[in-house]
TrEMBL record:
The keyword Magnesium applies. This is HAD family hydrolase. It comes from Paractinoplanes ferrugineus. Keywords: Hydrolase, Magnesium. Its cofactor is Mg(2+). GO terms for molecular function: hydrolase activity. The keyword ATP-binding does not apply. InterPro entries: HAD-like_hydrolase (IPR051400), HAD-like_sf (IPR036412), HAD-SF_hydro_IA (IPR006439), HAD_sf (IPR023214). It holds the Pfam family Hydrolase. Coiled coil: none annotated. SUPFAM superfamilies: HAD-like. One of its GO terms (biological process) is small molecule metabolic process.
Length: 225
């Protein structure tokens, strides 16, 4: 019997993809570089690689930010000195953080979950500090149950242990928890491997289309398991 809904944060509750694009559209022109679709892709690719190094504890959070710039800035021919990296990233962050918004379907989904008598929690591959800031900025603080980050559970999705640790901390058996997230490879498959129920929130219709529990919006979240 379902007792709780374990929600991913980025691109599930908060539109991180749009926030990144909006931030780059403001930040890059401030450096004299026009923002193109190719640069958005490049930024994401570089960011994901360095963020992964942080999640795997190979670098500090600040160092992964510097690493992203060391790789990205030469690609857009922006000269920099090593000592300027933190200040340059701070400018990007101002644009990024002011672009954080919750998806419009979140309110309805949280109301439906509460009406069904279910609890909520968050499991995210982000950092504790930044994810709490994100929840605060988007008006979600206090509207969800516990927030479990990589730093809390000691490992990151897709490690099934991240789900098991979150359920153990939450005090709910995995079989009574529904994982909901935008990444089939991170939020759905490993959740099932850990014994949870799972739904793929496929907002951009990226598939896989043969996933039996696939929804396009949180408004479609099935709660009758
Ligand atoms: Mg996500």
């Amino acid at each position: 019997m379902l007792r709780g809904v374990l929600l991913d944060l980025d691109n599930t509750l908060v539109d991180q993809r749009a926030a990144t694009a909006e931030a780059l559209h403001r930040w890059l022109p401030s450096l004299g570089v026009p923002c193109t679709p190719e640069l958005l892709v490049l930024w994401d690719e570089v960011a994901e690689r360095h963020f992964k190094a942080w999640r795997e504890r190979r670098v500090t959070f600040r160092e992964q930010r510097r690493g992203r710039l060391r790789e990205f800035l030469p690609r857009v021919r922006i000269p920099y000195a090593e000592g300027e990296l933190d200040a340059i990233f701070a400018d990007y962050l101002i644009a990024y953080e002011s672009s954080w918004r919750a998806f419009p379907d979140v309110d309805q989904a949280l109301a439906a979950i509460a009406a069904a008598g279910l609890r909520t929690a968050v499991l995210t591959n982000g950092s504790t500090e930044q994810q709490h800031q994100k929840l605060a900025r988007t008006g979600l603080t206090g509207r969800l149950g516990p927030v479990f980050t990589v730093e809390d559970v000691g490992t990151s999705k897709p490690d099934p242990a991240a789900f098991l640790s979150a359920c153990a901390r939450w005090g709910l058996p995995p079989a009574s928890v529904l994982s909901v997230g935008d990444r089939h490879d991170l939020d759905v498959l490993p959740a099932r491997r850990a014994g949870l129920l799972a739904v793929h929130l496929d907002r951009h219709d990226g598939g896989p289309h043969d996933e039996p529990h696939r929804i396009r919006s949180l408004a479609e979240l099935p709660l009758d398991w």
